[in-house]
Each structure stands twice: as C-alpha cells, then as structure tokens.
Amino acid sequence: MANKTADPPLPAAPSPETLAEECNDATAEKHDRALAAVHRLLKVRGVRPYIVHLHRLSLFGDGRPLPPGQHQRYTPELVVHSDAGWVIAVVTMGSRSGCYMVSIPRGPGIETVPSERPERVADLVLAAQPGGRS
User: In angstroms, rounded to a whole number, what is the distance separating the alpha carbons of residues 9 and 93?
Assistant: First the structure.
C-alpha cells in the first residue's frame, strides 16, 4: 500500500495588524470599490472571494459604546480560500500608494500591483490556487 502524505497546511491569513491599516470612511469606500473590481474578475472565473470590513469599537465597562471618536475602521481586505478552506490570498490597498497589495502565504511575500491593473491581481490569485486555475 502506498504511503500518501498530505500537503502541509498553509499559514494562517495575515492578521489585521499585518495588512490592514486604520483609515477613514472615505478611504475605506474607495478601497472597497477597487477590491470589488478584483472580486468581480475572480467570481467570473469560478473563485468565490469575500471582502472583510474590520472595525474596532471601544466599550464602557457596562457594554455601552464610547463616543464615535473611539471607533476605528481599517482598510477592507479581499480574502480567497481554497476549496479545502486554506487561505490562498489576501488583497488590500496601500493607504499611501493606492496600489493593490497581494499577500500569498506560499508566495514570496507581499506583491504590489498598480490600481489600474485589477486583472493582474486576479491572475496572481488564480496562479496561487491549488492546480493553478487560470
């Protein structure tokens, strides 16, 4: 009987402290639109990504929220999982550069892609898929 070994697990998704940065509502909406372009390109190719919106709310000890100034919003992230549930890629927008920042756990690190090239981001994500869908 052949001894089959499973692929080693992929690293966990980057934590919010790794990629997501605090931003205002206008910046988050702008980044959300850019990520939506990549989302549409991936969805057409059979990949089902999702966009994560991170908010941090501070509460009083009794559960009441602090005044609105204590609300923190972070840049949205587009997350892609494999069929087995492993994180394949996390895409955010650079707060200063406005470029896509593509993090592929089994890749070389974070790759930047100009904001006018969402199709390049989709290609990077598809190439990272198990079996290299394209």
Answer: 27
What is d(CA 89, CA 33) in angstroms, rounded to the nearest whole number? Answer: 18
For 74-109, the pLDDT digits (tens) are 889 999 998 888 899 999 998 888 899 999 988 778
For the stretch 111-134, pLDDT in tens is 999 999 999 999 999 999 887 655
Spell out the alpha helix ranges (H) of 14-116.
25-44
Instruction: Compute the distance between CA of residue 125 and CA of residue 104 in angstroms, rounded to an integer.
Output: 8
Strand order in the sheet with 110-113: 50-52, 77-81, 87-93, 100-103, 110-113
DSSP letter at 130 equals: T
pTM of structure = 0.73
Kindly report the CA angle at 20 between 11 and 107, in degrees rounded to 5?
35
